[in-house]
Design goal:
It is built from ten helices and 13 strands. Helix content is 41%, strand content 16%. By secondary structure, the protein is α/β, with parallel strands linked by helices. The protein has helices at residues 11-22, 39-50, 65-75, 96-117, 151-170, 192-201, 221-233, 269-280, 304-310, 318-334, and strands at residues 2-6, 26-31, 55-59, 79-82, 121-127, 174-179, 182-183, 205-208, 215-216, 219-220, 256-261, 267-268, 285-288. The strands form four sheets. A seven-stranded parallel β-sheet has the order 3-2-1-4-5-6-11, with helices on both faces. The two termini are 37 Å apart.
Length: 335
């Protein structure tokens, strides 16, 4: 198949592209290479991709309406994996307009491209952050998510609503994946694992929010990619049992689906830090701080729906995943 991956120079985008290239697909990778974090890391990821003859890179911002329209008209993609977004919960408190430009306007441009380009299936990244103020654990796709606590979360929920509209109006099959705290080799420098590893190696203190009373459903990147590819291969369909009198947010009478993709095993933050310490052979200096605005104390994915749909749930143990990250980090930065 000919597949467009937006955000191809990103952490998940690179890993997904490599998986699809390995199985024989043609991949067109799109990215704007913005400087939200180290551009050199993005270029290093791209270097791995451009070594493949079936990969082409296009530098383009998803918010560029004429550019996106021209891209879809020229390329005639079979399927699309939309991963490009302005990431980060905390940054959304500082620069809200970046989230509107990328996550809302950019998503409309992708939807319009898929609609007019006859795309068979759109798979897009949502986020566990949509659960916001929900406290019932584990988080289920069948629960309401109407109380976001950050603009980032609100834009991801908006993406799900926008996708449903296009599935309903135009019959475009769409599947949203709510990622839960993705980590692993080639990860983002603004994420906890990266920040903690760097600080511990440099002998600097790490910021531990909510005084360490946090839990996250850390999900290894290769597990995420396995789920993305399996979902891509199973085109979203209508739910024949859908009852509008008891509306299910995860399915519809349109070809629309939403799934959690998490490890289904929340890890206390202090245990996570202990895993990093063991992998590095060094002890962290901890600076205990209160919960930050826009953050939530815990995440925990119910993955029953994903398992029922594609027969897969993430399961990489946290110590194995962290060891793999630390090995990559040392090779990349210290060699």
């Amino acid at each position: 198949m000919k597949i467009l991956i937006t955000g191809a120079a990103g952490f998940i985008g690179m890993t997904t592209s490599l998986r699809l290239l390995a199985r024989g697909d043609e991949v067109v990778g799109l990215d704007n290479l913005n400087d939200y974090y180290d551009v050199n890391l993005k270029l290093s990821r791209l270097k791995r991709l451009t070594a493949h003859e079936r990969f082409r890179f296009i530098k383009l911002d998803v918010g560029d309406r004429p550019g996106m329209a021209a891209l879809f008209a020229a390329e005639k993609f079979d399927r699309v994996i939309h991963l490009a977004a302005q990431a980060g919960v905390r940054y959304s408190l500082q620069n809200p307009h970046a989230y509107v430009d990328s996550n809302l306007i950019g998503f409309v441009n992708v939807l319009e491209g898929c609609r007019h380009g006859g795309v068979q299936h759109l798979v897009y990244a949502s986020s566990s952050s949509v659960y916001g103020g929900n406290t019932r654990m584990p988080f289920s796709e069948h629960d309401s998510v109407d109380h976001p606590v950050s603009l980032y979360a609100a834009t991801k929920k908006a993406n799900e609503l926008m996708a449903h509209t296009y599935s309903h109006l135009y019959g475009l099959p769409t599947t949203g994946l709510r990622f839960f705290t993705v980590y692993g080799p080639w990860g983002r420098p603004d994420m906890a694992l990266f920040l903690f590893t760097r600080a511990i190696l440099e002998g600097k203190p790490i910021d531990v929010f909510n005084f360490g009373k946090m839990q996250r459903d850390f999900t290894y990147v290769e597990d995420i990619v396995e789920g993305v590819v399996r979902v891509l291969d199973r085109i979203a369909t209508v739910n024949p049992a859908y009852d509008p009198l008891v509306a299910d947010p995860a399915t519809s009478s349109a070809p629309y689906r939403v799934f959690n993709i998490g490890n289904n095993s929340p890890v206390p933050l202090l245990d996570f830090i202990a895993c990093i310490e063991r992998a590095l052979g060094k002890t962290a200096k901890k600076r205990l701080l209160p919960l930050q605005d826009g953050d939530v104390p815990a995440t925990y994915a119910n993955t029953d729906a994903l398992n029922d749909w594609v027969g897969f749930v993430p399961a990489t143990p946290i110590d194995e995943g962290i060891a793999n990250f630390v090995a990559w980090y040392r090779e990349y930065y210290e060699s």
